[in-house]
Every structure is written in structure tokens, then in C-alpha cells.
Amino acid sequence: MNSPASSTASQNSESARALRAAILAHLHETQNADGGWSFLSGEDHARGDSRVEPTCWALRALADSPESAPAHLTRGIAFLKLQQISDGSWPAATGMSSGGWVTSLATSVLAQFPSNEKPVYAGLQWLCDDYPRDSSRWQKILKSFSSNKHASHNDEFRGWGWTPRTSSWVEPTAFALMAFLSARDLSPAAQLAKSIHDRRTLAIGLLYDRMCAGGGWNCGNPRVYGVDGDSLILSTCWALLALRDAPEHPNRELSLSWLQKSFATIASPGSLALAQITLETYGAPLPAAQHHLTDWSAEDLTGQGTHVASWVSLALNLSRSWPAKIHQSPVSSHQSTQ
Are 65 and 118 in contact (CB under 8 A)? Predict the structure, then answer.
């Protein structure tokens, strides 16, 4: 088992450096001719069509790598910009006529590279305008006649859905907040400051309102038909990363503690990588764990998806620029053991 004190040493180990190098080499080799990446492109998988989501994560993993040729980044950025729809959104797959939650991810990634103010502005504007219908006046009237009296969330808060004009969900809301955060120092964010402020306020309220009992988040409502839902690692990581610049709140500390307590039992590399990134972003110590990222080979990771391999590469990168450590609110070692 890994001890907290050995975390940095583990990331600096020869096996960690070799694993990250192998992942980055795979990303170099599997970039499609159009500049994007597919979800699966290992030895056991035919190279698929480029998609916005895996392309975003591949670009994040490559951005802080001195081994990456500028051409890989340039072509990947060009692919993202070409995929943007005229209304400012991005589609989940090439050829779709409407965008969705990946707009947040694409906007966030492009904001980290220079000379992308125009597509970033269009993406931010689309996010500001995309209100879910679940908290509209008509939906509230309908819910007042519903036989379900066990709902525990506050419909006054509004976030984002997986698809436009649907319902607020935890993860799409977190990604939209991260897009606002990534672009906050750019001129597009200044031009939309009032709209972004209003949407952020509602979305932060929604995330805290949807937190599960005991800390952490799942993908939807924390309580359904009177039964408490279980927190999930990925949903909790996305929410905490989205809230890192939000005002102090006891629910954030509670959720950080939940993530620390859950860290030891994480069995999948994607969840382990994101949990490590999240805790390190907050300056929280990493507890002992059953697994280390080097327990998996590059082939294992790429076989689970370009996004998973990219998350592991980011976790192993001590000089990663994403996510920026804007607000550090560490959980003490005393809290983490309670």
C-alpha cells in the first residue's frame, strides 16, 4: 500500500515516468488525420472517428509535455475549432446538428491556448444562455401536483444538463463552472461578466444542494423516493474541481473528507487518477491506497479509453497546469482519519 509521504516519490519513480512516456507516445501515434482523437484506438481496437471529448483530454495531457511536437497541439486545436457549431456549442460527435455538455469541456480547453478568444466567447455565450427546463415556472407547477413528496432538492437552483434545455445534472454543471473558471482572465469572460456571475451563483448553489448525505456527489439527485443515494468518485471529483474557487462552505470540506476516506478502496485507474488530482489540487494529503497508477500498463489504460489514459498521464505529471490550484483548502490529517 502507498503511504501519503510516498506520493510524490511514486510520481517521480522510474516506473511512473516510463508509464507517462508510454501514454504520451500512444497519444502521438493515435491522433487521427483530422487532428482529433477517438475514444478507443489501441491494438485491440480499430481507430474510431475523432470526438470532441477524447480530443480535449488528449490535448490536456499533451499540453504540459516537452516531448509533444507543437504540430500535435496545433492540429488538435484546429479540430476542436472546426467542430464548433454556429450557435457556439460543440456536438458529442461529428455530424450532429446540436451541441451539448461537451461545449463546457471544449471551451475550457481552448481557453488554455492563445488566440482562441472568438470560439471561447461563443462557447461561454452558449453556456450562459442554456437554461434547463426542470426549474422553469411550468415545471414547478407540474411538480406541485406530483405524487412524489420525497424530493429533497431546491428547484430554485439551476445548472446544466447533458443536452440543452433538459434537466440539471451534477457533472454537466461542474464542467460548465470549470469552463467559466478556465476563461475567467480572458476578455470573453469580462464581456459576459454579469451573465457568468448569475449562472455561477445558481450553479454553485445547485451543487451544494445536490450533495449526498455525508459528503460527495452522485450524478443526479442525492435522495430519490426518500432513499439517500451513494456518492460516486468521479462525480465528487468533478464537483470539487468546479468549486475550488467558490466561497468557503462546510459541504466542500465534508466532501473532501469523504474523498480522502474513499481513496484507499478505489480500484479503477480513471477514478484513482482523478481523485489524486483533486486532492492534490486542494493541497490535501493522499491517504494510503490499495493501488497505484503504475499497477496498470499503458496498454491497459489506453484500452479503457483515451480519456482514462489522459487522466493518468495528468496525475503522473508533477508540473501539470490543469487544474490550476486557485483555492487550496486542505483537509487536515486529523480530519481525514476521523
Answer: no
Phi, psi dihedral angles at 35 (to 5 degrees): 100, -10
pLDDT grade for 249, boundaries at 50, 70 and 90: very high
**Rounded to 5 degrees, what are φ and ψ at 169?**
-130, 155
162 within 8 A of 101, measured Cβ to Cβ: yes
Cell 493541497 identifies what position?
A: 283
What are the angstrom distances between the C-alpha of 335 and each of 43, 215, 235? 45, 13, 22
- How many C-beta neighbours within 10 Å does residue 198 have? 12
Q: How far is CA 284 from CA 37, 94, 260, 276, in A?
A: 33, 39, 8, 9
Q: Is the pTM of this model over 0.90?
A: no
Helix (H, G, I), strand (E, B) or coil at 289: strand
C-alpha cell at 221: 439527485
Q: Is the pLDDT of residue 140 over 90?
A: no
Distances (CA, A) of 321 to 60, 150, 169, 182, 317: 9, 43, 27, 11, 9
Average confidence score pLDDT of the chain:
87
Average pLDDT over residues 203-220: 93
DSSP label at residue 293: G
Q: Are 157 and 218 in contact (CB under 8 A)?
A: no
CA distance 305 to 76: 17
* DSSP-assigned letter for residue 224: E
The DSSP symbol for 38 reads -
Nearby residues of 124 by Cβ (< 8 Å), 6 or more positions away: 88, 107, 179, 180, 183, 188, 189, 192, 196
Q: Which residue has the cell 444538463?
A: 161
Nearest by Cα to 212 from 195, 227, 197, 191: 227
| Cβ–Cβ under 8 Å, residues 85 and 95 | no
The Cα 308–Cα 268 span in angstroms is: 10
